[in-house]
Amino acid sequence: MTKNDEKVFEELELVFKGETIWETISENIIFDDLDNINTIWSLMLFSGYLTYEDIRIFTITGLKSYSLKIPNQEIKSFFRQSFIETYTKGDVHFYGLMMEDMI
């Protein structure tokens, strides 16, 4: 697992605990971007798996940073049952502490 993968799982853990994380979101995603781990936040926001409470726009770059959170219990349950198991390839034991935090 790479440092970027670990960062994503750490941030997901925060979101599962009900906390809000700030991420820069790209509104223009192309297929080549799908290899970039940071694209996950944009995809999850645009597909409705995450929602945002606040937005910051950086004046120089025009980049937008969103405060992301899980919108409801149904989505939280989806992540617990599907997303984590898929991305850990069934090695839930390795992420046991994170799974316990989500409950």
What does this structure look like?
With 103 residues, this protein is of the alpha+beta class. It has four helices and three strands, in the order αβαββαα. It has a three-stranded antiparallel sheet, covered by helices on one side. β2 (51-57) and β3 (64-69) form a beta hairpin. The longest helix is centred in the last third of the chain and has 15 residues, at 73-87.
| Helical residues, percent | 40-55%
Question: Which outline best applies?
Answer: globular
Structural Rg = 14 Å
Average pLDDT: 76
Give the low-pLDDT segments. none
The total count of strands amounts to 3
The major pleated sheet works out as: 3 strands, antiparallel
Number of helices: 4
Order of strands in the sheet with most strands: 1-3-2
Span of the ends, CA to CA: 24 Å
Q: Which helices and strands, and how do they pair?
A:
Blueprint: H1 3-16, E1 21-25, H2 39-46, E2 51-57, E3 64-69, H3 73-87, H4 96-102
Antiparallel strand pairs: 1-3, 2-3
Short description:
The chain is α+β, with helices and mostly antiparallel strands. Helices cover 43% and strands 17% of the residues. 11% of the residues are buried.
Key phrases:
103 residues, three-stranded antiparallel beta sheet
